[in-house]
Amino acid sequence: MAVYKRNYSAYTGTVTPVWARVLVLARYAFEEAWSSKITVGLFIFCLLPCIVSLVVIYLADNPIARALVGGRGQEMLAIDAKFFLKVLQTQAWLALVMASWIAPRLITLDLADNALPILLSHPISRFGYVFGKFIALFGSLSLITWIPCLLLFVYQGYSSPQPWATSNLQIALGLLAGSVIWIAFLAVVGLALSSWVKWRVVATGVIFAAVFVPAGVGAIVSAVLRSKWGLLLNVPVMMSNLWQRLLGAPAPINERLSVPTLAIAMMLSLACFVCVAMLNKRIRACEVVRG
Q: What is the DSSP letter of 250?
């Protein structure tokens, strides 16, 4: 039958709810992120410290192992807030590596292929597009941060010969809150920077630079002005302070590295606000090129 002889009519079937359309983007973004063998390799590498921590917890709760290590070894096998702080810090910085690889795959490819006009021509808003990518990145980073950390906490509570979990609930809440804050920050920063760089490899380097270059600048400012407020540009120091307070771990000996919690929250909020403004400026249904 010729095309002009066909009678076209509007679609009358069921329509996907507005709230569920974001999940469609998130599903395809998740598949895109994990379609690379490098992503799978990074995921396995990021879980290796958790396996080591699992072995340490097993040895700490084994009376034979504790008897063999002696007096000084008891401190090495102490499972407390300090131990879980080290676990969280390790997984958090591995999450930075993972985010630097995954985030450019989610947005940079769409920009390089000029796919945004096609995607945004569908019944989905710019916010829905970004939020779908955010869900995919947030879920991917969760697999190597708060999920394995909480599993280690549960295993310690199960293996401990004494009631341990109920008296250390702050550690579990701190692991969850600290991980969520960090991976949400990484997701927003990663998506924002990736939206402004069309080359995936360059975007990966830019994400690393956005975390560590201001840290060096903050250290110089603190040294010149002899003030700790320059540390507000140092993301590693800020997050270490925040994680330590959330988990209730012992405070660092050097008070110069201590930053008020309110200042940390304001600085992280400001950084996220700037990243949202960058996304709002970049994610458009059309691009105007001026000669």
A: P
